[in-house]
């Protein structure tokens, strides 16, 4: 099991802030592909992925128990 966390527009699109996903083995890219399939209306083109509160590349391994966050771009001033 991994724990997915959604922020901003993706949170609205998913209709929830978090969910769990049965998981054996894979990478951040595999989790991203699952999310793209599950939430096709959301634009993932600029989304950053964090695993256990650290930004990662898509090649990062994701293991059971990990927390994966999808973080869209933010702006401020």
Please describe the topology of this protein.
Elements: E1 2-6, H1 8-14, E2 18-21, E3 26-27, H2 28-38, E4 48-51, E5 54-56, E6 61-62, E7 67-71
Describe this structure in words.
The chain is of the alpha+beta class and 77 residues long. The protein has one domain: Ubiquitin-like (UB roll), CATH 3.10.20. Helices cover 23% and strands 32% of the residues. It has helices at residues 8-14, 28-38; strands at residues 2-6, 18-21, 26-27, 48-51, 54-56, 61-62, 67-71. The longest helix is centred in the middle third of the chain and has 11 residues, at 28-38. The chain is globular, with a radius of gyration of 12 Å. The mean pLDDT is 92.
The CATH homologous superfamily is called: Beta-grasp domain
Beta-strand segment tally: 7
Order of helices and strands: EHEEHEEEE
| Unreliable residue stretches | none
Task: Give the end-to-end Cα distance, rounded to a whole number of Å.
Answer: 38 Å
The biggest sheet, with number of strands, parallel, antiparallel or mixed sense and barrel status, is: 5 strands, mixed
Helical fraction: 10-25%
Shape: globular
Estimate the strand proportion: 25-35%
| Radius of gyration, CA atoms, in whole angstroms | 12 Å
Reading side by side through the largest sheet, how are the strands ordered? 2-1-7-4-5
Q: Mean pLDDT score, rounded?
A: 92
Number of helices: 2
Pfam families: ThiS
Organism: Domibacillus iocasae
Family: Belongs to the MoaD family.
GO biological process, one term: Mo-molybdopterin cofactor biosynthetic process
